[in-house]
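Dear U.,

For the methods section draft, I wanted the exact inputs and outputs in one place so we can describe them consistently. I've listed the two proteins in the order they'll appear in the manuscript figures. Please don't edit the token lines directly; just add comments below if something needs changing.

First protein:
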Amino acid sequence: MTVAQELEKTTQPVRGTKKKPPGATQSSSSGRQGMFVRLDPDDKQRAEYWADKRGFSSVNEYVAEAVVEKIRRENLDYDLPTLEIARLNELVDQVAALAKNSANLERVVTTGFDSLIGLTRGDNYLLDDEDGELG
């Protein structure tokens, strides 16, 4: 019997704890390491909501998936859209810009016609007689 085996036999585990094999770390059956995370109550509530909505068995599973996804984004390892999707997104942006331009043009034309109608009626504040007062 070696010294390590004798030492292992004589050392008794603390009551209520499991004895770990030498060199083992705390991990679950899925091979994951344990970790403790502190969240604000609001963030915890949102995490519980989204974990439930996405069908995760627990908030821990959701947080583990979120950490993995964030690391992938930091490493620039994410799916790029196909050329068709990118072109479609570009067209959607162009249509939105065209709608804004059309609304602005409509506003300018409407104000211009209102000004012309006001001038033909003689309702222009610039045509009023001055009384010498400022304001």
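Second protein (the one for the lower panel):
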Amino acid sequence: MRDVNSLPGLHSVSTMFSAKKRAIPGVHRSVYLDLFMLGKEKERILKEDERQCRLMETNKKRLEAIGLEINKLQGAQTAIKADADSGFSKHTLTQKEGIKKEWKTMSLNY
């Protein structure tokens, strides 16, 4: 199933240099200009790679935190099941069952 992340976006657009298209005819090529453009392309790709590495690190940390939270919740769920199986009441008493609950009150002195 395709989602938004699998669609081509701005990062997949080829530049004029990577497509090897130039406004100057091929006969009048300048080595200096080619070196300059290759350097700029290299800088752009290195920056993109750095950004992706930071994003991957952030994603890994978040996945670890989610895994710990899942384990903690599963542990709490098994503890609740163990308490229920050991003879404790499976439900709390409510007003429907005939027990009146008292309101918690506190005085407000201004």
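Candidate sentences for the figure legend, describing the second protein: Residues 31-85 form the longest helix (55 residues). The chain has one helix and no strands.

Thanks,
Y.
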